[in-house]
Amino acid sequence: MFKLWSTILKDMRILTRDRLGLVFMFVMPIVLAVVITAVQNSTFEMLNTNTVPMLICNRDTGEAGKQMQTAIEKVGMFSLKQVTPNVTDKEISERMHAKDAVIAIIIPADFTQKLKLTADATAKKALKNFGMQAAGTAITNDSSQVQPITLLYHPVLQESFRHSINGALRSALQVVQNKEVLKSLYFALNETALPDSLEKDLINSQVAIVEIPVSRDGSRNIPNASQHNVPAWTVFAMFFIVISLGGSVVREKLNGSFVRLKTLPTNYLVALISKQLSYLFITFIQATVVFSMGIWLFPSMGLPKLNLPADITGVVIVTLICGWCAVSYAIMIGVFAKTQEQANGIGAVSIVLMAAVGGLLVPSFAMPESFQFVMKLSPLHWCLEAYYGLFLEGGKLKDVILNIIPLLGITFAIQLITLIGLKRKNLI
Questions:
Q1: Which long-range CB contacts under 8 A does 400-407 form with residues at least 24 apart?
Q2: Are residues 266 and 402 in the same domain?
């Protein structure tokens, strides 16, 4: 026990001298958690607080063009900037390049006229199917001649954001089209215009959508950006101790520490256990620091507060298992690397790759099927899933056991590979 404690003190002293390693272990996760959370939170706010700037050029003088503009305003995610109808498409593009807006919509001049013809044709088809119109009645459909509504977008917009905007505009267009069809049907049946009160009742009588997150504890709290990002980048930082720990193992191999240990009444396995305990403590401190920032510092920075799960014991156990896997991986890299540069390069690149395929950079549900098997080989994936089961789903330790078991299996496999490498190199 004395040998182990002495070795732990030695490793802690070496660690305190490794300033670059301390930066990677503590400063990097803090910066990543703050920056990524701030960017993601500002994106959510932009989508929810009507701040997406849009140029709208309404070249239609009829009622449908005005209704379309009103429907877009009611969507609730655009800040409209009106431009005169005589502005050319090129001038609109120039204003977008000048960052006046990131999207623009152009309503064609004959929008009302063509939309009415389309609505009349649709109403006649419906009446014919109901048997309320003679079979020989001609049905004219000029819908193919309707000029489409043009949507211009700045190239900086990501594809997912464009799809969201496109869906919102399609919803607004559908409201205007449905209104015209209802007017045509009502006039065909009653030969009078649709009353305003009935029109409002028909248009506004929509089934409400209630958003309820699926949680294991039965709560209906919607996870915020901090709940997603803080655990993810904490896991990323844990595995980045490979820069410090892997380099430490390589230095001991190169300076002959292994050989000197063989001349002493001890075993290098004691040194390996010491390193695992020392750096496991560091990974736990990492998680404590980042989680504490999410709880107390984020609100003062205008970021959403990190809400800890109810099962604190589960969080502690998951953190220790994730840290143990990270420490085991770092030691394995140090054992097989021949130089400190190799340990740093291979370790850093491999962590980034495992983070990419493990769900930290791209959500796991968005991964293509060809990557599903590779994703499950990444220990970061199982670490993240275990944390998400606690932070996002409101689960307890028993609910994330199926994520912990593969993580422990990967950790034992890494430990076995490390022991095989040490024996082949005659280090133990």
A1: 400/314, 400/318, 404/317, 404/318, 404/321, 406/376, 406/382, 407/321, 407/322, 407/325, 407/379, 407/382, 407/383
A2: yes
